[in-house]
Every structure is written in C-alpha cells, then in structure tokens.
Amino acid sequence: MKLKSVSLSIIPRKPILLLTLMMSLPLCCSASDFLKVDGTYIKDNYGVGIDVHLYGTNLGGWRGHEPWMSPLAGASNEWDARNILTDRFGKDAARELYNAYWDSWITEIDFKNIAEAGLNCIRLPIYAFNHMDDEGNWRLDDTGAIDLSRIEWTVNKALEYGLYTILDLHGAPGSQNGAHHSGRQNGTLLYSTSLYQNQLVELWETLATRFKGNAAVAGYDLLNEPSETFPGRMGPEVVILYDRLYHAIRAIDPDHIIIMEAIWWWDTLPNPREKNWENVIYSLHYYQWQNNENFTVMKNSVDGWIQDAHKWGSKYNVPHFIGEFTLFGNAESWNYGLQQFTETGSHWTTWSYKVLGPNNWGMYNTAKQNSNIANIATDDLNTIKYKWSQWNTPEYFSPNPTVINAMQKATLGRNLKRPTQPLPINHTTAM
Predict the structure, then answer these.
(1) What does the alpha-carbon distance between residue 320 and residue 41 come to, in Å, rounded to a whole number?
(2) Which residues fall within 8 angstroms of residue 315, CB to CB, at 6 or more apart?
(3) d(CA 116, CA 260)
(4) Would strands 364-365 and 354-355 be described as parallel, antiparallel, or unpaired?
(5) HEC string of the chain?
(6) Which pTM was predicted?
(7) 367: pLDDT strictly greater than 60
(8) What phi and psi values does residue 138 have, to the nearest 5 degrees?
(9) Which tens digits make up the pLDDT trace of 253-296?
(10) Are 183 and 79 contacting, i.e. CB atoms less than 8 angstroms apart?
(11) In whole angstroms, how far apart are CA 246 and each of 279, 361, 384?
(12) What confidence score (pLDDT) does residue 23 get?
C-alpha cells in the first residue's frame, strides 16, 4: 500500500475522523528502532541508543535467478532468461511466469523460519530490471505509481517477525560486475555507459524517497560485489559511483545507514573521513574456496578476516558487515565462525536462506534437484508456470541443522534488538 500526499488543509479536524484516517495508514516501527552508526558501532534511537548487532541471511535466488541455487535451466542469467521468455511468450506472459515463481519461493513462513533461527535481519537482493527496463522506463502499478510493491511487502513482512531489512542492489543497470549473479553477463556496462549510471542514481533516489524514515530498513547496500574487472579487485570507478550515490541519497534521506562493499580488500575503499562520508558501514564478502572442508583451514580464514576487520575497522572508524559468506560443509567451522563473528562485534548475513541441492550453502536445502526446474528454452508456458509455482519451503526444502544450529548457538542469550510494530491505537483513550 502506498501513501498519497495529503494537504494539511483537508485533514479532518474532528478527532473521530482523524482517528479513522490514522488507522487506515500502514503501521511502521517506532522511532527508537531507527539504526545509525556511532563510530564502529550500530545503535538504535537514531544512533544515540543501545548497541545493536545484525545477524541474518540473504533472500538469494528469489528476485533474480542464479541457476546453481534456484530453478532455472535454459539460460545462465536473468538478462538472457527475460529475453528468451519475452521472445517466446510476450512481455505480459513473462511477467506472469515470474510472479508465479516469486509467489512460491518466499512466503510468510520463511520470515518465521528466519526469526526462529535466532536472527534479526534479512538482506534483500534487488534487481534493477524488476523495476525498470533497459532504457530506464519504470514499471508502474495499477495506480500509475512506480511499482516497488514486492520490496515493500518484504520489508513489512520482515517487520512483522522482528526482522530488519537491508536493501541490497544485487543487479545494477548494465551490470556492476558482468557476473551471472548481477543478472547480466555481457560486460560491466555500468562503468562505461552514462545512461546506466543515471538509472542507478535514479533507482537509489527512488528507494530513498520511498523508505526515508522507515525504521524497519536497517540500511542501503549500494552495489553487490562491484568491480570493473570482476573477479579482480574493484578500482576507482566504483568509488566514484559510491560517492555520487552517497550524495544523491543524502539529499533525500539524511538518516539511513549507507553500506559500501570492498571487493575484496579493505584498502579498495577510502577512509570515509577523506570523502566526508558519515553514517556508513563497510562490507566484505568471505568465501574460502580451497580446502574448505578442513576445519584448520577455515579457522585460519575466519581468524584472518577478523584480524583485518579489527585493524581496518579501527583505522576507518566504521562497523564491519559481512554481507555474504558460507563456511561450507564442516559443522565445526560453522560453530567456530559464527561464534567468532558475533563475539568480535561483526554483523553478518549468510549466503543464503534457501538453496537447491544437498549442500551447506542454505539454511534450507532440497534433498536433490527435483523435476520442477523449468527449462525456459523448451518447456511450454503452462509447464514453466506450474514448475515455478512449486518451490515453497515447507513442501520442497528441509532445514539444514549444520547452519541453523550454529546460528542459534551464536545468537543464544544475546537479547537481539528487533524492530517492533507499535501497539494499535486505543479508540477510547485516543478520542
């Protein structure tokens, strides 16, 4: 539901009518839940309250397919998938297919599962092409407003279960890294195309306008794993974009935390004081690819990441957010890693909430690749729609005790801060 601007001159003056108007508006959490940065800490009450630690998971593979972890065959990325489906069935039918998938992959019970695992946060990957086309034309809802309804629904549903939401731009216009998880694999066009850069700024301006003052949103994660030479380290073009986005957002929203990712090393980001950046968090993603079933190897990696975070976080005076990571298949690694991350003050969100296949990437996994993976190049329209509607968590996924148990152990007894909805207005006392 979207709020329309209302002139103060037409607000009803009678208490009962004013109450009716207030009760029709969507609820949000209280101002004391609003998070801001204070040095290396995150605090509630606009940065002057108590320390808050964010522990959560990513809703990956939902608003954008990654074929290794979600049910897509016949294309290796979303850009190709959308073109294939549109060419075969038309734009409206392609959208209908995606709605069937989106309605199935994440439902209300998933937020309950995340909260019950001892978590208080989700990171929501957002894909630009779900909201605007390649020319920058916005997708509109039935009222003619920019359609951010899926994002709004996610933020509100997370709030119902005491979860903050981090908005993560996972796939930028033109792609910020040219990898399949950005949605597009035909180059890092963002850095060479002013059209895409302008779309990127407009997208964040629109998100900032819509979620300004919303305490259920923990922060804005500007770009997922951006690099001009991915998987190589990011360079100055990313920092230039960060600076432009920072100022564009701050002109609209002076309060929300802004998250900037360092790919893959802290020193790829400047000291925020040099840029006059305030209320920012620096984020890194950790994946130890070699010998990752060996606890000693993983322990050494975790210890090294923490040492770097302490060194650079202190130097830059910013909080440390681990936006993505997995500790692979060794339960001892998961227990040690999550315990160390929490005890040393890091904030984290695992990659990812649910994943196809019997592995330890997900809190929930499928026992095997089942028959509901749609081949969008060969399956007919009804078959794709049916298959993509068969992915809800209770029926097709099983909880992964290795990951969930480690989460619950790490967060046990920490009295996590959760955003809360205000109590309903008491009609008698309000009048």
Answers:
(1) 9
(2) 271
(3) 29
(4) parallel
(5) CCCCCCCHHHCCCCHHHHHHHHHCCCCCCCHHHCCEEECCEEEHHHHCCCECCCEEEECCCCCCCCCCCCCEECCCCHHHHHHHHHHHHCHHHHHHHHHHHHHHHCCHHHHHHHHHCCCCEEEEEEEHHHCECCCCCECECCCCCECCHHHHHHHHHHHHCCCEEEEEEEECCCCCCCCHHHCCCCCCHHHCCHHHHHHHHHHHHHHHHHHCCCCCEEEEECCCCCCCCCCCCCCHHHHHHHHHHHHHHHCCCCCCEEEEECCCCHHHCCCHHHHCCCCEEEEEEECCCCCCCCHHHHHHHHHHHHHHHHHHHHHHCCCEEEEEECCCCCHHHHHHHHHHHHHCCCEEEECCCEECCCCCCCCEECCCCCCCCEECCCCCHHHHHHHHCCCCHHHHCEECHHHHHHHHHHHCCCCCCCCCCCCCCCHHHHC
(6) 0.92
(7) yes
(8) -75, 145
(9) 999 999 999 999 999 999 999 999 999 999 999 999 999 999 99
(10) yes
(11) 10, 32, 40
(12) 32
Please give the structure tokens belonging to residue 166.
Answer: 């981090």
Q: Average pLDDT for residues 143-153, to the nearest whole number?
A: 97
Give yes or no for residue 14 having a pLDDT over 50: no
The first and second tokens of residue 68, run together, are 């290794």
Q: What would the mean pLDDT of 370-380 be, rounded to a whole number? A: 92
Q: Cα(418)–Cα(376) distance, rounded to whole angstroms?
A: 40
Residue 225, sorted as left (phi over 0), alpha (psi -120 to 50) or beta, turns out to be left
